[in-house]
TrEMBL record:
Transmembrane segments: 7-35, 55-80
Presence of the UniProt keyword Transmembrane in the record: yes
Organism: Pseudonocardia cypriaca
Protein known as: Uncharacterized protein
Top-level taxon of origin: Bacteria
Lineage of the species this protein comes from: Bacteria, Bacillati, Actinomycetota, Actinomycetes, Pseudonocardiales
Length: 81
């Protein structure tokens, strides 16, 4: 039995890259949704405008979640076929 080390390393690198990408997209979605959170009165940023409008944050979150769903769906498609 022989192992094709080149293919194994390629699969490991691609897997690590996709994992990093999916985790990053989910993190960006959470940050985008945090723009909709209410800021406490008397807090550190009291009176300051939010860095991103809530609608823009929600749009960023939606795009990130759709991208993650497409990546996971494609991976499942590759496993099933």
């Amino acid at each position: 039995m022989t192992i094709d080390w080149g293919s194994l390393v390629l699969a490991a690198v691609i897997s690590a890259g996709v994992t990093l990408g999916v985790v990053s997209l989910v993190a960006f979605a959470v940050v985008g949704l945090s723009a909709r959170a209410h800021r406490p009165i008397g807090g550190r940023d009291d009176g300051a405008p939010p860095p991103v409008r809530p609608a823009v944050g929600a749009a960023i979150a939606a795009v990130c979640v759709v991208a993650v769903a497409l990546i996971v769906g494609y991976g499942l498609f590759l496993v099933v076929t």
